[in-house]
Design goal:
The protein contains 1 helix and 5 strands. By secondary structure, the chain is mostly beta strands. A hairpin with a 5-residue loop joins strand 3 and strand 4. The radius of gyration is 15 Å and the shape is globular.
């Protein structure tokens, strides 16, 4: 899997939503030009009670400037307060995968 990067200008939603892209801000990731894409936002109401976080969480995949996936992480939604997305990935909210037992 690879993310293809286009340079056409579009204005992403300022509210954290699936598809928003943000620059990585820490140390080596920042120097390498890595970005994080929100690919899922958890719904605490659908989580089992023992694992319930008291707020929504954003699951992100980390990509390098060439679009290669190099990592993944999760953040509380408050992490994105005041952060401006730099791009938007279309179609992530429509992905429907199937997992089969082996």
């Amino acid at each position: 899997m690879k993310i293809h990067i286009e340079t056409e200008t579009q204005i992403p939603s300022m509210e954290p939503i699936v598809g928003n892209v943000y620059p990585r801000m820490g140390g080596r990731s920042r120097q390498a030009g890595e970005m994080m894409i929100i690919f899922a936002i958890s719904d605490p109401a659908k989580q089992k009670e023992r694992f319930q976080y008291r707020g929504r969480m954003a699951c992100v995949m980390v990509i390098d400037p060439d679009g290669n996936i190099v990592g993944a992480d999760s953040y509380g939604m408050s992490y994105f307060d005041g952060k401006c997305p730099i791009a938007f990935v279309e179609g992530l909210e429509d992905i429907d995968l199937t997992m089969r037992t082996i």
